[in-house]
Every structure is written in C-alpha cells, then in structure tokens.
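hiii so my PI (J.) wants the whole complex modelled not just the main chain, which honestly fair. so below is everything: three entries, each one labled with what it is. i double checked the lines twice but i was tired so who knows lol
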Amino acid sequence: MATVQQEVVLAILAKEPAQGSQLRARLDRALGVLGEAINDGQIYVTLSRLEKAGLVTRGVPGSNDRKVYQPTPAGHVRIAEWLAEVRWPRPDLAEFHLKLIAAARAGLADPLDIVDAQRRELLRRLRDAQRLAMAEPDGSEAGLLLEGIVLRLQADLRWLAACERSWTVRRKS
Amino acid sequence: MGKLLLVYRLGVKDLRHRPAQALLLLLAIAAAAATLTLGIALHGTTDNPYARTRTATNGPDVVAITLNGGANPAGPDAVVAPGGAGGNDHADADGLAPLVNAPGVAAHSGPFPVTWTVLRNGHTTGSAEVEGRSATPSPVDEPKLQHGSWVGPGGVVVEAGFASNFGIHLGDRLTLGGINVDVAGIAVTAAIPAYPNTCTAEGCFLANAVANHNPGLIWATQADTTRIAGLAGPDAYYLNLKLDDPATAAAFAARYNSDTSPTAPYLLTWQQIRDGDAQTLARVRQVLLLGSWLLALLALASVAVLVGGRMAEQTRRVGLVKAVGGTPWLVAVVLMFEHILVALGAAAVGLGAGWLAAPLIDSAGAGLLGAAGAPSLTCATVTSVVAFALTVAIIATLVPAIRAARQSTVAALNDSPRTPRRRELAIRLTSHLPTPLLLGVRIAIRRPRRLLLNALSIAVTTSGLVTVMTYHATSGTWLADPGMTQATTIISAMLIILAAVNATFIAWTTALDTRHTAALARALGATPDQITTGLTAAQLIPALIGALLGIPGGIALYEIPKTSGTTTLPSLLWLVAMVAAILLVIAILSLVPTRIGIRRPVAEALQTETT
Amino acid sequence: MMNDSTDVLLHARSLRKQYGRGEGVVRAVDGVDVEVRRGETVAVMGPSGCGKSTLLHLLGGLDRPDAGEIWLADRRLDTLSERALAHVRRHDVGFVFQAFHLMEELTAQENVEFPALLAGRTPRQARRRAQQLLEQVGLAERAAHLPTALSGGQRQRVAVARALANEPQVLLADEPTGNLDSAATLDVLRLMESLNAAGLTLVIATHDERIAATADRLISMRDGAFVDQTRLTGGTRGTLADLAGLGG
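here's the output for the full assembly
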C-alpha cells in the first residue's frame, strides 16, 4: 500500500486550506497515474496524525466548515524547514550487493543468475515506466516524475551491468 | 633565418613523405623542360651547317635559273607543286649568257641542264631533279662526296639528304625517267637547299611528270641528263655565280629579277638557299617549342592534380604545421617551397636530358655538314629553362597555396574535412538519370576541379596529337623529313605518357576518395556494377569533352604559326579512332582501381574517413 | 499478441565471423543462432566489442559470414552474389548507422529520396515518398535543411526515414543513439516505439538500456555469443509506485 509523507500533505495545504477530497485531487494531478496507488483512507490517516502533532487544525475561523484543514503556525515552521532540507532518498544497494556475495560464498546460487534475474525485472519496469512517460504530454508534472523513475532505473541497470562484468571476471579466476 | 630553416625542413619532410608524387611531378615538369631545351639548343642554332657546307663545296653566292616554257619563277609564290606550263619546250641557256660576265661576278660554273623526272628505286616511287655535270671539277659549287665517286656514264650521284631520306644507297639501281642508272656516289651541296627543302627556294613547278612527290637532287653526266630529259629537252638551266662581294648578292639578284619577262633568268641568292636549308631546322624548332608549351600545360595539370590531391593530404599537411605551432600562411609557403624545389630538380633533369638528346635529333639533316657532339648549353638557355620550370610550378601551386593561406586558423586546426559544396542543379538533373549516371555524376561533381583537370589534360594531349595529324595530312610525303618525324614522335609520346599518368592518378585518387560514398551507395542498394559504371562514366564525360575540344584546338595550333598554303584536315576516320582510343584507355584506367575498391565488404568500407 | 506461429522473418544458424589471424584472432560472432518474427522488436545488448554490430552487419548483408546461414523470409542471404545482396539491401532491409552516414551536400529530403531513386522510382514518386516519411518521423518542416543544419537526433531520424524509403521488411539499427545526447536519444526512442507500434520488424543493437527497453525481446551478447534472451512483457504499476518512493 502506497503512502505519502506527512510533510507533503502539510505543504499542499499551505497554498490554501482544503478538504480531504480536494487534497486528493491535488495529489492526483501531481502524481498522475501513480496516484492511483494511494488510497483515500491513507490521506485521512495522515491528516489526523498531523492534527495530533499540532501541525494542522481543523476548521477555518469565521466559517462553519469543520472538514477543512489548514496548517498551524508550528505547521508553517515545519513546512519551511522541510523545504530547506537537502536530504535525498537513501539508495538501497547494500542489500543486493551482500546478497550476491552471500550466494557466492555459501554456494547457494550463481551470482550471475541473480544479477540476470534482477536485470530482467528492472528492464521490464523500465519498459513500463518509459511507456507511461512517453504517453504523458510534454511538460506534464507526472511526466517529469516518470522520467525520474526511468533514469533511476537506467542508473541501476548500469550498475547491474557492472556487477555482471565483475562477477564474470571473478568466476573466471 | 629560423623561419627559412623551418620552411625548408617542413618542405623536405612533406616531399619525403610522398616520394612517388614528388617524382611524378618532377618527371612531368622535366618532360616540358627537356623539350624546351631541345628546342633552344638544337644543332644548327649555335653552329652553322650551311656555312660549313658552303665553304667545303665552294658554294655559289647566286644561282641563276632559266626555265623551260618561259615560266619565270620571279613571279609570286615560287614554291609551287610541279605542273606543266605552256609555251615553248626548250629551256634556253642563252638567257643566262649575259650573267657570266656581269659586273661583280668573280667566277661561274654551268649553265648546267636540269630536268625533273620520275624516280623509281626498287618499289618506291619519287621524283628527282637531275642536274647534268661533267667529270671535271667545277670552279663554283663542287659537291663534296661523302661516299663513292663522281658522275660517270650510267653512274649518278645522289644528294645526301635525299639519299638518307629515301633510303638510297651506294650501288643501288635507280630508274630515272625510264633510264636505268647506278648510284655511284653521295654528296652534299650548298647550291640548293638539301632535301626535303629542295623546292622551297625555287619553283619546281614545271616538271609535268613529277606530280605529288617532293623532288631531290641527283647529279648525272650531261649525256645521261639529256637522255633522261628525252625529246622535250632539259626543263631548266642552272648557272652558279660567285661574286666579288657575297654581301651584295641580294642587290645583284634584285637587279636582274626586276625583269619578269618569260625568258629572263631568275636569280637566287645564297641567303635564300641558306634559309631554305634552315627551314627544316626552323620547323623542328617550332614543333619542339610548341610541344614544350603543350607539355607545360600538361605538367600544370599534373601539378594541380597532385597538389589538390586527397583531402587526407591537406589535413596531414595542416597537422604538420600545427605540430610546430604555425599558421595557415606557413602551410602556403611550405607548399610553394616544396614545388619550387621540385621545379628546380626538374629543370636540371630537363636540361640534362635535352642536352643529351639534341645530337640525336637530325635537325640539320643529312644534307649538310653538321658538327659532331653535343651542343653547348649557354647561360641564356639554362636561365630560360629554369625560369620556365619555376613558372609552371608556381602557377599550379598558386591557387591551392592561396586557399590554404586564406583558411582560418580555427578551421585548419579543427581538421574538418571540407564538406563538398551543394550543387543544386546537378542534384536536380541527376535524379532523372539512370542509376549508374545518377551515382557517378553526383559523386564526381563533388570535386569539380578534378573533372576540369581531367578534361584539360585530355584536351592538351588531343591538341598535340591532332596538330601532328594535321601536319601529316597537309604535307603528306611532300615535306617528310627525319628531324620532324623524330620531334613529333617524341612530343606525341611524351604527351600520351603524361596524359596517361595524369589520368591514372586522377582515377586512383578518385577511387580512394569515393570509397566511403560508394560504400554508402552499396549499403543503400546500389550494385557493384552500377557503381563502377557510374564512376567510369563520370571520368569519361570530361575526357570526351576534352578530346572534342582538342580537335579544333589542335587544328588551330597548326594554323596559327602557318604563314601560307592550305591546310588539309586529318581524315574523320583517324579522328574518330583517336577519340575512341582515348576513351578506351580512360575507361580502363578508371575501371581498375574502382573494381579493386568494390571488393571490400560494405561494412568495412563505411568505416573509412568521410570525404 | 506475440504468437508462437512460425512467421519467422529473419533467422540465422551457427553464424561465425572472425577477424585477424593466429594469435590475434578475434571471434566477433561465434556460433550464433537468432530468430526474429515478423512485427517483433528485438534488442541486442552487450558491452562494446561484444560483436553486436558485426551481427547486425551480417544480418543486413553488409558483410559476409565465415560460416553459418542467414535466411530472410524464404531467401538465403549468405550465398547470394554481391549483386543480389545489393537488391536485398535495396528492397528488403533498411539499415540505420551510429554515425548516420547522411550525404552532407544533400538536403534531408534528398537524402531520403536517394534509395527510392536507386530502386528506379521516378523523381516525383521518390519525392512524395520522402515527404511522407519525413512527416512520419516528425521532420516535415526540416525537409529542405542540410544535415549540418540539423541536430544529431534530427539527423538520425532522417537516417531512419531513409532506411524506410523502399518499405523494407526489416529495419536494422546499429547503435542508433550511440552518437546522441539524452534529449536526442528521447526523440529516437519515441520514433522506435512508434515504429514498433506500427508493426515494423526491428532489430536494434544498443548499449542504451532505454532503447533496449522498447523491445519485445532482449538478447544479451558477450564475446560473440548470446548469453541471455528475455521477453520484456509484464511489470506492474504498483511496483512503479514503489520506485517512485510512494512506499509505506
């Protein structure tokens, strides 16, 4: 089940207060097809967590609307901090790398087979991501995201090609 | 000083890198230089065979002629083919009598009877001018025997030029006007220009039996001459005069030539005889000088082709300069220097070859006493030949050198191969042509200069050959002489060889340059036959144009220095045969390297550098 | 959609090609069997020097194998004369090169017309076909430009149009994006996808994963031999969301 980070929801509310359904719409626009993976319930769970943490309030002063959320002053501070962060998603290479070594050492499987299997899978995903990316109109926000996925996959595939070369050499010696 | 040394080093290095091309260039220019040297330094320009002969034979200052039928050659156009003239049959020796004691005359011999007649020597037919002499030596004009002995009953002496040209030898049996005689001797004289110029100084237009053959002189006894002359009697009488002052010969002759009545004698001066003798030499010189200019043009084309060369050459040359941190100007200077060096070498080779070959050209002819040995090369000769060679090299190198200098440093250093210029018209027209021509023309049109040089080369060669052919057609056997034959043969041979070398080089560099494009065309579906046909056709078209231009060019070359007479054009059959032969040779020369190139697999050929 | 019925367009058995002699001999293609069905897009991937270019040259008749057979539809290619092979290259096979190999002095349109003219079409027919193809590759407004006025990606698209001039049965592309930057690669990528969608049979040699991902089937090649063959169908969007970082 896909979720979206708390800060993201918070930041979306910064532009103007919104109900859960409006929030949903804004997310979908930005994520395109990938947004389908996010479930409505998830959004409401996130909103209530934010409320508990004191980063959003429900209701707008001067209105009877109890479904509209907006950030608190603490929430705005948090948004500013988040925007300024340069933390990048952590790559996850170590697990695969160790998988190959373990398989080779223990004689459990041929590391090259593992690499090939992984390459095949990534190539399939690359194909799908690429198709989706090209289906998007030029300049669409979702298209940009898909392009990012494609490029990451490409980078990973290159690393896998390097793994293949390296493990082939190792096998020969 | 350092710059000069640098230029020298780069130039020599560049030359050494392509020795075959440098050698070819040298030979091309040397051929032209040698021909020029020959033309300048021929026997007889610096020594004087006529004078030598005159002294040896005590030649006359004036020769007086009176002709049968009263036709006076003092009229215009004395050089006329023989034909009959009406009037009385007898030549009259009496008309000559007053001259014997005229003021200024120191000595005389004759009058001698002269008749023109048909000569048969074995299977060959010719015509002879028979002069009747006595066994006793003459005070003026005593022909000098080279072989054998003087005239006797049934024994004649043949003039040396005539004998050598006609293949008459001592002891041969001749038939003169139906009378059989033996050749008793061979001699030279200064009283008449030697064969084949015998008829140039005086009219030979009387003898009605001697149509179409250039007569040569034969001495016989008076009795034999009368017999040969037959019932009609001698056609003419010659009187040889020696003057007190040879320098007055012209004035003396003018005095008597003013009388143009039919029975008045016609007087020839020794200068006219000398000039008649010199005609052979003059003709040969003219041919050699003309030939040297034709060869120079060919050499120019060779240089231009070799300098233009292949793109790889130019890029490499620029690379050389780059390595020493030079500018495009330096490239131009180095280019010039290289070719000046080659030109100097060529001049040296040409001078040497010409000097060695000069004695071999029989320009003086056998009919005069020539000097043995090689002619001396004067300072003037050397200077002219060197200047000539340098001019050829500089003119040919000028355009590429300027272009190299103009090229911006950036472009030169980028080593970018020159993109062929877009030829809108050619592209549009060729799309309507069948595939081989489509390919051939589009590929060939990328290097238009090469096409032009090809055409020029063939045009020059064809001109030379057509000039020779026109000469042969016009003069036929009338003016055949060994010197001319040698000169024209040498020049024709050199023209053909140089043109063939040019064509080979063009075909070879074209085949190499077009490898990539040909491979691309093959990758897109052109068959090897289409490519070879196309590329060959592309070479044949400028060759055909060149050959067709060369025909009127050659005729013009013959006409321009000509002063009189009609020109007979060479037969159409010969011209067509020549053009066909040229095209065949060009086709073969183009076909071979192209076919070789086609053998490589397409994938490999596509890797070669683009051009 | 990809049925197993034998509508095999191109196939080769035991292909062998080597260069050099003795110690320095290089087995560029070493006993390769390959089969390409009509309408399929096959990618051959491998490090440089693995022989994929050589393989493509052999399949396209640009070079002759030392051993083995090559069949295109019902015709055997490796025994054809050079002349017959030229006919095959003209009508049955289209080739796209890494270095484009366009004629520099011809406009884009004239470049595309060229094979049609070689095949004997009239200039008018060739022009119409070229315009149509340039339209198809999205370069209709650049028809009158010379190659020097075109970007790398545009040049390669012209080259693709040229390769399609005589409606070949199969298009062979040797590293089509090898000389291109990423933006140009995208252009060519889109083109390859559209050709694939239109049902053209494509064989692409590439080291670019993105190009390879357009294929229906991927062959991995190393040292002249095939090491792997994969069908590239399948995959889910759900896993894509994972890759996007939308994981829980």
